[in-house]
Amino acid sequence: KAKNGPAPSYLSDLITSRTAPRCLRSSSTARLVPPSLRLRGKYNSRLFSVLAPRWWNELPLDVRTVESLIIFKRRLKTFIF
Question: How much is the mean pLDDT over the chain?
């Protein structure tokens, strides 16, 4: 929801999509960019802005590129279980 619309803006602001400067095959993979953290701490790896892109990028391409939220939930459940 944070990536495609119906999430609150404070969550959507924490998510950035990866954009390629040129047209590449990898530009259609719908990946997110994890933030570069300058501060090293034991809680930085638990931040939403760090974990969300990591988990999103681990999903299969057919789950990440679904347009419908209902189908996304169904495929996500199939992937997890």
Answer: 74
Q: Is residue 40 a contact partner of residue 57, using CB atoms and an 8 Å limit?
A: no
Q: Place 32 in a pLDDT band, splitting at 50, 70 and 90.
A: confident
Q: Contact at 8 Å (CB) between 42 and 8?
A: no
Q: Where are the alpha helices (DSSP H) in the chain?
A: 9-12, 48-58, 61-64, 69-80
Q: What is the dihedral of CA 42, 57, 55, 16, to 10 degrees?
A: 70
Report which of 62, 54, 67 is spatially closest to residue 78, judged by C-alpha positions: 62
HSE-up (13 A, CA, CB side) for residue 34: 17
- Checking if the pLDDT of 77 tops 90, the result is yes
Q: State yes or no: pLDDT of 55 exceeds 80.
A: yes
